[in-house]
Write a structure and sequence with these properties.
Layout lengths: L9 H12 L3 E6 L2 E4 L1 H17 L6 E4 L3 E3 H7 L1 H4 L6 E5 L3 H13 L7 E8 L7 H6 L9 E10 L12 E11 L1 H21 L5 E4 L6 H13 L3 E6 L8 E10 L1 H6 L10 E8 H12 L8 H7 L2
Parallel strand pairs: 3-7
Antiparallel strand pairs: 1-2, 4-6, 5-6, 7-8, 8-12, 9-10, 10-11, 11-12
Length: about 300
């Protein structure tokens, strides 16, 4: 059985405390849920603009989904089979006046009032691309050239930690390619090259390595091994809270025809579409920039500032 969480290193906690002291992040009382200073947000905006410039010639269709999605979509996606430890469901009060009086009495006594909440039809989005596949499938068959989408969303994963790079609520920018196996693997390879060049140009040490998702339980170990054996997932790693265990700031994933088969994504001739995505962890990349260049953006290297504040 998987251990649910990993304790952060002392260095990670020290880095987090330094971010608080510098006013870049603000405590809320819950690990992994922080306020962000204006300059932290500006760095994210500047980095996103850099990513947009890198992708400007690709012709992606831009779509933004909210940070919540229909529960039925998550259930059908198989996410709960693979990552039940990370999922979050929105609950709400649905009682009558008597139930409300009970809730108020429980609050007054300091008791757990959440038993009076019921699950809604909304779950928190775990990855920016999850709502995309059924949305595109509902629009009909793909053209022979396939399709490319540019997405952004707040995402949620329940893994509270004092490692600042492991937030529970974070933003993900994704490019998702739908098409034939050849089309989507060529797309992924192009971003493996572009992503590494982009991060290196920002003066950040990085390495691209084979990876796997944090599948749950004993069966998850086999899924993780299969994912690695087939080379389906790569990550761009940058030392953020730890030098020994660098953080995945970009991910490059080839889903084969998994989502195509699941949601009926196909071409006009009935061929099932394959998919691949590249995901940018926006908070993680900002943290990497502050870690390696310091908390004062005015003192960052000229070549980095010229890229971000172009």
């Amino acid at each position: 059985m998987n251990a649910p969480f990993k304790a952060p290193t002392t260095k990670a906690v020290d880095f987090l405390d330094g971010l608080f002291d510098a006013g870049l992040l603000m405590r809320t009382g819950v690990d992994g849920v922080y306020g962000r200073a204006g300059i932290f947000e500006e760095v994210i905006d500047r980095f996103e603009a850099l990513v947009t410039r890198a992708a400007v010639g690709d012709g992606a269709t831009r779509i933004h989904f909210p940070p919540g999605m229909p529960r039925r979509m998550l259930e059908k996606s198989g996410y709960l089979k693979s990552f039940p430890q990370l999922a979050g469901c929105v609950h709400s009060f649905m009682g009558n006046e008597r139930d409300h009086a009970q809730l108020l009495a429980m609050l007054e006594k300091g008791e757990d009032w959440t038993e009076l909440q019921q699950a809604t039809e909304v779950v928190l989005t775990p990855a920016a691309c999850y709502p995309l596949y059924p949305t595109v499938a509902a629009q009909g068959p793909l053209k022979p050239a396939g399709a490319l989408f540019d997405l952004k969303s707040y995402c949620f994963r329940h893994e509270p930690s004092q490692d600042p790079a492991r937030m529970q609520l974070f933003r993900m920018r994704e490019f998702v390619r739908l098409g034939t196996a050849e089309q989507v693997t060529a797309f992924r390879q192009s971003w493996l090259d572009r992503g590494e060049r982009l991060i290196a140009a920002l003066g950040l040490p990085c390495v691209v390595d084979l990876a796997n998702d944090p599948f749950f339980g004993r069966a998850g170990k086999m899924l993780a091994n299969n994912q690695r054996d087939q080379g389906l997932k790569f990550e761009l790693l940058i030392p953020v809270a730890s030098d020994d265990k660098p953080t995945a700031c970009l991910s490059f994933n080839y889903h084969q025809d998994h989502f195509g088969s699941l949601w009926g994504l196909q071409f006009e001739d009935g061929e099932i579409a394959h998919s691949a995505c590249v995901g940018f962890g926006l908070e993680r990349t900002a943290l990497a920039l502050f870690r390696h260049h310091g908390t004062d953006v005015e003192a960052w290297p000229d070549e980095v500032r010229s890229l971000l504040w172009a």
